[in-house]
Amino acid sequence: HTKSVSKYVGYNDAIMIYTLVPLGNPSEKYATTRHNAGRIVVDLIKEDIQAISACEIFVPETFMNESGKAIAEFLRYHEDREVIVVYDDKDLVLGTFRISFDRGDGGHNGVKSVIEHLGKRDFIRIRIGIAPIGTDGKDVIAPHGADVQGYVLGKLRDEEIISLREITPKVLDAIKTIASDGYQKAMERFN
User: How much is the pTM?
Assistant: First the structure.
């Protein structure tokens, strides 16, 4: 799942290596659930991501709630990496995404695990929206309380998969911008 990259260019100046980590649950059972939206989006553009010299992809083999363990283990052997965690966000409308940095977990157990195991929250996130739009065409209806688990673990409908496909070129552009100009520029351009 990872691609090795040369760490140095030019006069031995170290370049930043960005490791994209799409969160999700392993196995066919969860492959097309809303909770795996981050994995689905990254999978759709993985060849393009791997063509960016400063980027690599690491896909944890753990369940969502254990993501942080796998990432911490990976970083033990791959120091000097800047992590970009890609995950579903039930409070963002489907077909949109946001780049953020140094936030709380927002109630997302995968992100909670990452913060816990890395011992910090200052990492880059690409949040993939999965919330449905209201019947008025405007309001976002984010699931809350007891409805959250059933919603995020529910299978994506065909039109939802189309919405994810439609944002992938912009997500790829955002990743390229992060790699070349930093996350602040990417936030200015894409948020």
Answer: 0.90
pLDDT of residue 14: 57
Query: Hey, which residues are catalytic here?
Result: 35
For residue 140, give the 3-state DSSP assignment.
strand
Note the residue count of the chain. Answer: 191
> What are the Cα distances from residue 10, in Å, to 17, 41, 80, 97?
15, 33, 18, 34
- Radius of gyration for the alpha carbons in the chain, expressed in angstroms and rounded: 16
Of the candidates 68, 64, 69, 71, the one whose C-alpha atom is nearest the C-alpha of residue 88 is: 64
Burial of 145-166, coded b for 16+ CB within 10 Å and e otherwise, reads eeeeeebbeeebeeebeebbee
The band of 4, judged by pLDDT with boundaries at 50, 70 and 90, is very low
SS3 51: coil
Distance CA 38, CA 188 (A): 21
